[in-house]
Design goal:
The complex is a heterotetramer, with 2 copies of chain A and 2 copies of chain B.
Chain A (H helix, E strand, L loop, with lengths): L8 E3 L2 E3 L3 E3 L8 H4 L9 E3 L16 E4 L2 E4 L8 H12 L6 E5 L4 H10 L8 E5 L14 H14 L4 E4 L7 H11 L3 E4 L3 E4 L1 E2 L4 E2 L5 E5 L4 H14 L4 E4 L5 H10 L3 E4 L2 H4 L3 H15 L16
Chain B lengths: L1 E11 L2 E7 L12 E5 L10 E4 L2 E3 L2 E7 L3 H7 L6 E8 L12 E6 L3 H12 L3 H7 L16 E7 L8 H7 L2 E6 L6 E2 L2 H11 L4 E5 L2 H13 L3 E5 L15 E5 L5 E5 L6 E3 L5 H6 L2
Parallel strand pairs in B: 8-9, 8-12, 9-10, 10-11, 12-13
Antiparallel strand pairs in B: 1-2, 1-7, 2-6, 3-4, 3-7, 5-6, 13-16, 14-15
Helix pairs in contact in B: 5-6
Bound molecules: flavin-adenine dinucleotide (FAD) (2 copies), flavin mononucleotide (2 copies) and FE2/S2 (inorganic) cluster (2 copies).
The site of one flavin-adenine dinucleotide has 24 residues of chain B, from strand 4, strand 6 and helix 1.
Chain lengths: 305, 284, 305, 284
């Protein structure tokens, strides 16, 4: 019975073995986890945000644990697009799973330059545009519909690959931003990025993060993320990748019932590197138990009368 | 990655020694490496907690920890037979050189945790090599001790927090003690013991673990005498395996170029002269 | 030493024994908790939102527990302002602690009528205007600066009591809304209300709340709330009441260091009815230990270089 | 509100009986009331869990619970001597009338939990009155049993889940059993036992606790014969004390006007005829 369940997912042209992805910034370049898990079992890997030049990231401390959550202020510490091409992407071609490159820039121009640098590079299944990093300066595109649409248009022009726009939850109405990205040419929307937040050390009276504020991720934010995925998936025609606090198959299924065609696992990788793999199995069992033959059958079927 | 607890005892006020059944992954562990432990199956606390490998006795891994917050508090309540989710060994350990002597080991407070394993390993220099070749696993412990000049300096607040003295002695190390209040050994900091020790005889290699202020002093003293010094550092960790870039500290390379390095993967043991101490300590 | 610490707090004219309040909707009318705790030890009680007419609230289930959080969709179930005046307020005059009435309406007109109904009623120390309930229809004033300002202006005209505007975190920039409320005549800002969110039962494929979506509260949202309090307290001149996930004195102190002049305890009352009382003691100990003579000395002193 | 656990035993697969030392607050408890228990000191699970008072033996309160999720799982791991944070007794219990007979008690599965305390109390009718007056607390249990016609009907899936039969018998109740699979007593639902029972002899009062579908049937059967029936209901709780309005169910008053009532404070015991069953069951 279990065998007959079809988990394959076509996310805007990215063909995945299953709908469970590893979220940007939480899975490195796949290599570190390779000794702990079988990367091939995961639907796709989204790489850490890459920028035009290498970036050092923020002053430590960069992490604080909060109730059922993790606050981070990494600050897009990365090796830069040229090193990515030279050192990482070649090795990833044999990863056996689609690789999605996540890009970030301080302004439209930088985004465009990164996407240009990636043109014709082999072994990239898709591009995720990070409009929403809470830990760096620059325009927060995800908080302004016009800016978001403009950015997508510019990236779109240079990019033949499937294009995923990654949104921030810190907005009044996320459907407006999602629609703007759709209009700008995005092939899919992914949400949510971590939530702007902070924590204070009452003894030193200083912020617990070197960067003062950071982004909240993990189970704490899951109910917020589920609602946003539900709203966005009703508002746009392109597929949605849901994330935010997914720890288990049941969490992933919540997102899919709410309308996510695929899901991404972030913080949970740190807690249990096998999470994504276990979720793939769990979704399979759920589908089989409930008489579904294909994972697409549960996408958006939430009965919200 | 589920491992069974064999014992978990309070050996000093608030300090526990826990031994878990864990061999497949652990047998190749090097001193200075750590294990990453999930203290609760709930979402709070969410993250794993890093603890240095304190002892590696065939089939088992021992850790030594102080209860400081909710993670370690939960750990301290685990009982024999309970199962723990552990990843590891992780990180890069102490880079020991076979021929250099004397080796000086400096432990401040809980810093003793990784250093006992280091001493065990130093005294059985080729233990790992042999293990991989011929010896059956359960006979590793019975390997003969080497005769090496290993000097262990232990410091703590008071007598009751001087840990592992007997274990080091049994291995054949010389042991000197300092306590802040003079309740045992010399009164004062362990860094004074160290100062005396290297004044008397220049060390071949120095390995230290303890409070940051102490490590910085040991690093400075070692630098003054041009002695190689390795320190084991702590930092708040996310993944523990090198992907999140959350645990970084700023270091300078031999070429003078500074940059962030990951405590979990490039460390936790660093060459003390590469650590930018001011920056490291001010940010904690 | 402990004795000499001054906890008294004057919140925009509301004189409180200490800065720890009970949050609206989580403390009823004080009577239910009276047998479990000494209400006099709390700085002030904010009553459940009251409306012009009695309201039945939302269809159950109204609660779901989430990781370190609580999702609620009560829907302003309340007895109405007339019953409040007749049945509750007289008894509360002897509560021995200031009573703040929290009001809600579907539109400006309803808010105004509620405030009119409360004119000259004895025993009210202040009014909290709920601009931000996530669980009911009507305009969400807290998501529109102009609407918020207009509402405050209208209520202000009819209200001589200290006026607190309660904001929603589901906005792009909360400082804009806070400033609009200040301009509209608010004497204080309180934040945050619960965060719009949802949870799904994967077995039934239905939302776990009868109302589909609800508001997330509890420790899960604390890091989000602390950041907003920090930002708002820098942006406005009027005092800020901080809330969202406060469980302990240390949590409360985080909010105060971030800039809150007072704090409110919500969900934690359900977990431990003594929370507010324990926090009062904990703040006293903290001040004494750290050499402060008055609680006002820690407000906003976060060192965020 | 910190109470010490005296015992916590698995009495059937996944079902535990826990006894805690708790008297000051509990001695005035009425059958049908519940206690509100914090299962973890972490933030996950965050909320307390409501459990009916199962037994009230001087100085102690007993609860009977099934492990269904993380809260009850954590509870089941507590040991004798551990301390629990408990609020209660809370809620309104069964409204028993002294003179009406026979009393029929219908328990489905875990529904037996509050009903044993009810039977104990029925058999010692004025126990509470006397307790408040003269008798020293530790002699309450030795009060003589009343002779009352109390008929207990217990239903469960299989034999192993038939709980408390002996306890009811010892109190002097008549006991009839039904199991879904016929492994013990009559095969079928306990509602059939009830149907037979009231057909043979009209009950004075009916008290029931168990799955909602069963309660609705018992309520309907009682209504047809105009027998007063009280049911103990469950709903997800926030505060447990009546302030959050989170636990409400829709009921209709005698005047026909319907409205929400709080399970925690107006219940958990309700007159079965006031419950709007369709609405209640469809929303769970
Ligand atoms: C490589 C490494 C090896 C270590 N080895 C040992 C050891 O052998 N024995 C021992 O007693 N301790 C050791 N520590 C410190 C130990 O990890 C912390 O004391 C522990 O994580 C505290 O967790 P908690 O939940 O009890 O405290 P909490 O204060 O509740 O922890 C809150 C958060 O801060 C983090 N944290 C707090 N203190 C530290 C710290 N000093 N270092 C890193 N993260 C911290 C926790 O991981 C958590 O995210 C080591 C740390 C590192 C990085
Ligand atoms: C007044 C009252 C008395 C009760 N008495 C007993 C008893 O004596 N013995 C017994 O075994 N059970 C009893 N229950 C049910 C018991 O409270 C739940 O089984 C328990 O809360 C489940 O918690 P969990 O964390 O194990 O499950 P989870 O599924 O993890 O709980 C998740 C959430 O749902 C809530 N929840 C889940 N099931 C129920 C339920 N049936 N009723 C209310 N809330 C629920 C929990 O409180 C929690 O918020 C009673 C319920 C009520 C309302
Ligand atoms: C340590 C860390 C680093 C992250 N780095 C990035 C990043 O570089 N680019 C990005 O788009 N998202 C980044 N994210 C956000 C995650 O991809 C994800 O959107 C978010 O954490 C929510 O999912 P989760 O709750 O499952 O972690 C990062 C998250 C964490 C925790
Ligand atoms: C069950 C419940 C009911 C609430 N009802 C109201 C309300 O009627 N009016 C209001 O302004 N806020 C209401 N709130 C929001 C709280 O006052 C508070 O702003 C929010 O819960 C965040 O604080 P906390 O995390 O400490 O609970 C309610 C919260 C809960 C949990
Ligand atoms: S803890 Fe994640 S990189 Fe070190
Ligand atoms: S649980 Fe809060 S009113 Fe019943």
């Amino acid at each position: 019975m279990r065998e007959s369940v079809d988990l394959t997912t076509n996310l805007a042209g990215i063909r995945m073995r299953n709908p469970v992805m590893a979220a940007s910034g939480t899975f490195g370049y796949g290599e570190e986890y390779a000794s702990l898990i079988d990367v091939k079992k995961i639907g796709a890997i989204v790489l850490k945000s890459v920028t035009l030049k290498p970036r050092d990231g923020n002053v430590p401390p960069r992490l604080v644990e909060t109730p059922a959550g993790l606050l981070n202020a990494i600050g897009i510490h990365n090796i830069g697009v040229e090193a990515l091409k030279a050192e990482k992407l070649p090795g990833l071609r044999d990863a056996g799973t689609p690789v999605i490159v996540n890009i970030w820039g301080e302004n439209v121009n930088e985004f465009v330059k990164v996407i240009e640098a990636l043109e014709d590079v082999e072994g990239i299944a898709g591009i995720e545009v990070n409009l929403s990093c809470p830990n760096v300066g620059g325009t927060l595109f995800a908080q302004d519909a016009a800016a978001a649409e403009g950015l997508l248009e510019n990236v779109r022009k240079k990019c033949a690959l499937p294009l995923i726009a990654k949104l921030s939850p810190q907005v009044t109405d996320i459907t407006l931003i999602a629609k703007a990205c759709e209009d700008g040419g995005a092939d899919a929307i992914s949400l949510i990025n971590s939530f702007p937040a902070m924590a204070i050390d009452v003894e030193t009276k200083r912020p617990l993060l070197g960067n003062v504020t950071g982004g909240l991720s993990g189970p704490a934010i899951k109910p917020i993320a589920v609602k946003m995925v539900w709203e966005v998936s009703k508002a746009v025609k392109i597929p949605v990748v849901g994330m935010g606090g997914i720890m288990s198959a049941s969490d992933a299924i919540e997102f899919m019932l709410a309308g996510a065609k695929a899901v991404a696992v972030g913080t949970a990788n740190f807690v249990n590197p096998r999470t994504a793999e276990e979720i793939v199995n769990g979704i399979g069992n759920y589908l089989a138990k409930n008489g579904f033959s294909s994972v697409s059958q549960i996408v958006g079927v939430l009965d919200a009368r | 990655m589920k491992q069974k607890i064999l014992s978990n005892e309070e050996i000093a006020p608030g300090i526990f020694r826990m031994v878990v059944n864990m061999w497949k992954e652990a047998q190749k562990a090097c001193p200075g490496q750590f294990v990453h432990i999930r203290c609760s199956s709930s979402n709070d606390p969410l993250l794993r907690r890093p603890l240095s490998i304190h002892e590696l006795i065939p089939e088992t891994v021992g850790v030594l920890y102080r209860v400081v917050g909710k993670g370690t508090d939960l750990l301290s309540k685990k009982k024999r037979g309970d199962v723990l989710d552990i990843i590891g060994p992780l990180g890069c350990g102490f880079r020991t050189k076979p021929a250099v002597e004397p080796v000086v080991i400096v432990a401040g407070g809980m810093g003793v945790a990784p250093l006992l394993f280091l001493a065990q390993s130093l005294m059985n220099v080729d233990r790992h090599m042999r293990a991989k070749q011929a010896l059956p696993q359960n006979r590793l412990a019975s390997l003969p001790l080497q005769r090496r000049d290993v000097r262990v300096l232990i410091g703590a607040k008071t007598r009751e927090f001087i840990l592992c003295e007997e274990e080091f002695t049994k291995l054949g190390c010389s042991v000197d003690i300092a306590t802040d209040d003079g309740s045992y050994g010399q009164e004062g900091y362990v860094s004074s013991l160290f100062e005396e020790s290297i004044r008397k005889k220049k060390a071949g290699q120095v390995f230290a673990c303890g409070p940051n202020a102490m490590l910085r002093e040991i690093a400075a003293m070692s630098a003054r005498r041009a002695v190689e010094c390795h320190v084991s550092l702590e930092s708040r960790m996310g993944c523990g395996v090198g992907v999140c870039l959350g645990c970084v500290i700023k270091t300078k390379g031999k070429d003078g170029i500074s940059g962030y390095r990951r405590v979990c993967r490039d460390g936790p043991v660093f060459d003390a002269q590469t650590v930018l101490w001011d920056e490291f300590i001010s940010r904690l």
